[in-house]
C-alpha cells in the first residue's frame, strides 16, 4: 500500500531541520520560506497559525477525509451543511488546505443530507410570522402591593414597554380601574401615543366596566 505524502511535508522539513526541497526552482523555494512563517513545528506535529491566533494541527488529505466524516456523518455528526461541518472540524483543531472543498463534496455525496435537505412541503415545519414592534407599541401593566401605607399610598402601578424596557410607575392609594385609566391618559397616551396592545393579568381593575 502506497502511503500518501502529506501536503505539508516540505514545510515540516524546513521548520524542523531547515531543509528545502531540491526538486523545485528558486521561486517555489522562496514561496515555501515565505509561507513557513505561518507555521509552527512542535515535534511531531506541524501547526498553522490562523488569523485569529489559534493554532490548527496540520493533517493529510486522507486524515482530513476521516475527520470530515466523523464531524458530518457519524452518529454524533448531525449531517449538517458544508460550512457548519468545517466549523466543527476547525473547533476540533485540524487544518488542511482543501477543507472547504472537501466538506462541500462530502455533503453533496451524503445520502442522509440529501434527504434532509429536500423535505416535501407536507413535512416542513410550519412557518410563523414574527410581529414587528416599534418602541412603545406594546406595554405590560400591573399592580404591586399592597404595601404598608406611606403618605396614604399602598400600591404601585407599573407599566413596562416591551421593546425598550422603559418603566413608568406611580404610587397610589387604591387599585381600581379609575386609577388605571388616569395613569394611562397622563403617563402613557399623552407622552408615548396610543399603544397597539396593553398586556395585563386580566384583573378586574383593568376592566373599564
Automatic annotation (TrEMBL):
It comes from the Eukaryota. The gene is LOC107479024. It comes from Arachis duranensis (Wild peanut). InterPro entries: Gypsy_RT_Integrase-like, Integrase_cat-core, Integrase_H2C2, RNaseH-like_sf, RNaseH_sf. Residues 122-209 form the Integrase catalytic domain. One of its GO terms (molecular function) is nucleic acid binding. This is Uncharacterized protein LOC107479024. It holds the Pfam family Integrase_H2C2. One of its GO terms (biological process) is DNA integration.
Amino acid at each position: 500500500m502506497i502511503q500518501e505524502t502529506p501536503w505539508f511535508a516540505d514545510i515540516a522539513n524546513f521548520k524542523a531541520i531547515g531543509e528545502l526541497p531540491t526538486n523545485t526552482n528558486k521561486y517555489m523555494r522562496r514561496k515555501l520560506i515565505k509561507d513557513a512563517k505561518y507555521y509552527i513545528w512542535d515535534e511531531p506535529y506541524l501547526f498553522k497559525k490562523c488569523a485569529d491566533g489559534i493554532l490548527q494541527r496540520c493533517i493529510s488529505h486522507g486524515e482530513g477525509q476521516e475527520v470530515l466524516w466523523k464531524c458530518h456523518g457519524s452518529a454524533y455528526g448531525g449531517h449538517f451543511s458544508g460550512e457548519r461541518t468545517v466549523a466543527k472540524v476547525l473547533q476540533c483543531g485540524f487544518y488542511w488546505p482543501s477543507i472547504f472543498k472537501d466538506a462541500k463534496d462530502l455533503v453533496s455525496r451524503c445520502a442522509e443530507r440529501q434527504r434532509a435537505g429536500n423535505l416535501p412541503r407536507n413535512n416542513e415545519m410550519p412557518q410563523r410570522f414574527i410581529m414587528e414592534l416599534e418602541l412603545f407599541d406594546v406595554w405590560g401593566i400591573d399592580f404591586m402591593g399592597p404595601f404598608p401605607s406611606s403618605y396614604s399610598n399602598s400600591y404601585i402601578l407599573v407599566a413596562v414597554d416591551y421593546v425598550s424596557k422603559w418603566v413608568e410607575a406611580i404610587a397610589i392609594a387604591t387599585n381600581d380601574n379609575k386609577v388605571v385609566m388616569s395613569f394611562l391618559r397622563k403617563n402613557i397616551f399623552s407622552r408615548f401615543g396610543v399603544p397597539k396592545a396593553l398586556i395585563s393579568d386580566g384583573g378586574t381593575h383593568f376592566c373599564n366596566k
